[in-house]
């Protein structure tokens, strides 16, 4: 039997999925790692912890492939979280941990750049909105706040590039990941000279941009031995997790949007060319040079649901454990008892600042409309609705840029929840389809590997492997409530922005993380 492995390098865990030659899931393994928030606005990961999790996940599914029985791994391919940054000295010793997309310590420098005409000018060439998430802003922060690190840094990589460098000694970055750095010109597919001049970087400090279909062989022998895989197994670079999520749910035709809610979230559509928003609200990232994903990311997705679980429903969390139930299932059951609209309670989910649609790293969360009748159950449903309303706001901006959205394909952790699926259908007033395969990123990475190795001619082959889908239709009884509340939610998000800087600065002053 021949197998391929799709690896999903996420924000808080790495997952490896073993597929057979019919692209059916045979085995999977998932290993987590912490996100370090030692100071306000920090969100870092440890390089060694990620490498151990990656090695454990990959090694686990390789063992399940039973290579000793004559089976073969024909490729390993990657989907990766975007916007990470790691600085190395000239001897490739790390000078920082992994500074993730969720790290907003560059907010001051991003805000200054955004207010200047230069910010929009750079965005119009790179397709990455000006925000602390982007390595462009992180580099400005390092340059000004940590000049000692900046002056020593000879190389900059992201997390996937670090793994390839450690395994193969390579110094390359696929154009999909590069297109999310804010440093890469998406029209000429090269590092942008203006962005480099602004940060003070030289091109040789950055990896060589390559196709997502490029791959490495000749792994360092000690790692091949530890993983239990032949050293000449092709490791395909793959692409960013957002673009691959669209491919993984077959949302590649015009007007078909993919919504993902995992730790964070996003809504995206595919275009055959880069598309720039004159207002700078949406991103344009490469899947490959012929497919571009246009959309908006949100910081606050499943992590806000987790916050509600840990802080509003701690007792229920313990009860669920005693009963052998999943805590999230119990919580969604509780939320489902509350009518649509949470009896007039709104929640803005900006616990970690926000990217799209407001692009304000100083944004903070809030409940609005609380009265004596509201309970924790109301608050819980308002949390789920707030996350959904926020992504709906992004969709309105996206439609201004690319035209009407005709249908929605859903993926990510929220796709497990019937309540949340129905909520999206009701708020968007559109059918929401959930493909049978929820391992969309890993499956898409494998499809990229098959194209890289010449086993298929184009990416649209993935439609054969998505499987049966469940479709949720809008419920008129629910969307009447949401029609009234959505405009209030949107107006509030704008009005509250006038005070976000003040409350965020207060929290920083008092070291409130």
UniProtKB/TrEMBL annotation:
Keywords, ordered alphabetically: Kinase, Transferase
Organism superkingdom: Bacteria
Species whose genome carries this gene: Convivina intestini
InterPro entries to which the protein is assigned, alphabetical: ATPase_NBD, Carb_kinase_FGGY, Carb_kinase_FGGY_CS, FGGY_C, FGGY_Carb_Kinase, FGGY_N, Gluconate_kinase
Gene3D superfamilies: 3.30.420.40
Protein name (Swiss-Prot/TrEMBL): Gluconate kinase (FGGY family)
Residues covered by the Carbohydrate kinase FGGY N-terminal domain: 3-248
GO function terms (MF aspect): gluconokinase activity
Record carries keyword Endoplasmic reticulum: no
Family per similarity comment: Belongs to the FGGY kinase family.
NCBIfam families: gntK_FGGY (TIGR01314)
Keyword Kinase: yes
Domain Carbohydrate kinase FGGY C-terminal: 257-451
One Gene Ontology term from the biological process aspect of the record: D-gluconate metabolic process
């Amino acid at each position: 039997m021949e197998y391929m492995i799709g690896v999903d390098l996420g924000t808080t865990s790495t997952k490896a999925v073993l597929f057979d030659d019919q692209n059916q899931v045979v085995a999977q393994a998932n290993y987590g790692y912490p996100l370090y928030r030692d100071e306000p606005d920090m969100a870092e990961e440890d390089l060694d912890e990620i490498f151990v999790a990656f090695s454990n996940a990959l090694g686990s599914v390789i063992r399940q492939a039973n290579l000793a029985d004559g089976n073969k791994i024909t490729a390993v391919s990657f989907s990766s979280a975007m916007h990470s940054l790691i600085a190395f000295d000239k001897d490739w010793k790390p000078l920082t941990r992994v500074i993730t997309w969720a790290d907003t310590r560059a907010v001051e420098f991003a805000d200054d750049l955004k207010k200047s005409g230069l910010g929009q000018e750079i965005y119009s060439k790179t397709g990455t909105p000006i925000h602390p998430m982007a390595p462009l802003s992180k580099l400005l922060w390092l340059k000004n706040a940590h000049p000692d690190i900046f002056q020593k840094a000879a190389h900059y990589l992201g997390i996937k590039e670090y793994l390839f460098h450690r395994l193969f000694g390579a110094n390359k970055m696929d154009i999909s990941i590069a297109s999310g750095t804010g440093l890469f010109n998406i029209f000429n597919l090269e590092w942008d000279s203006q962005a480099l001049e602004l940060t003070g970087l030289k091109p040789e400090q950055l990896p060589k941009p390559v196709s997502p279909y490029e791959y490495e062989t000749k792994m360092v022998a000690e790692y091949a031995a530890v993983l239990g895989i032949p050293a000449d197994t092709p490791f395909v670079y793959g692409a960013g997790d957002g673009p691959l999520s669209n491919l993984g749910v077959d949302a590649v035709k015009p007007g078909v949007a993919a919504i993902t809610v995992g730790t964070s979230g996003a809504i995206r559509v595919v275009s055959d060319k880069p598309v720039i928003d004159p207002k700078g609200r949406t991103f344009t990232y490469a899947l490959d040079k012929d497919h571009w994903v246009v959309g908006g990311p949100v910081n606050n997705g499943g992590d806000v649901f987790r916050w509600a679980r840990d802080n509003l429903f701690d007792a229920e969390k313990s009860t669920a454990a005693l009963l052998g139930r999943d805590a999230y299932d119990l919580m969604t059951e509780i939320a489902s008892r509350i009518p649509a609209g949470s009896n007039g309670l709104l929640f803005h989910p900006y616990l970690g600042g926000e990217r799209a649609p407001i692009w304000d790293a100083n944004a903070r969360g809030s409940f609005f409309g609380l009265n004596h009748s509201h309970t924790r159950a109301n608050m819980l449903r308002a949390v789920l609705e707030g996350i959904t309303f926020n992504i709906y706001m992004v969709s309105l901006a996206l439609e201004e840029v690319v035209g009407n959205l005709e249908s929605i394909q859903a993926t990510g952790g929220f796709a497990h929840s019937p309540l949340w699926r129905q909520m999206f259908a009701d708020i968007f007033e559109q059918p929401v389809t959930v493909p049978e395969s929820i391992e969309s990123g890993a499956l898409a990475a494998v499809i990229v590997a098959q194209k890289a190795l010449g086993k298929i001619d184009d990416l649209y082959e993935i439609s054969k492997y998505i499987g049966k889908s469940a479709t949720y239709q809008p419920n008129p009884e629910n969307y009447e409530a949401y029609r009234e509340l959505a405009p209030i939610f949107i107006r509030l998000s704008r009005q509250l922005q006038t005070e976000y800087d003040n409350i965020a600065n207060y929290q920083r002053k008092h070291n409130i993380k």
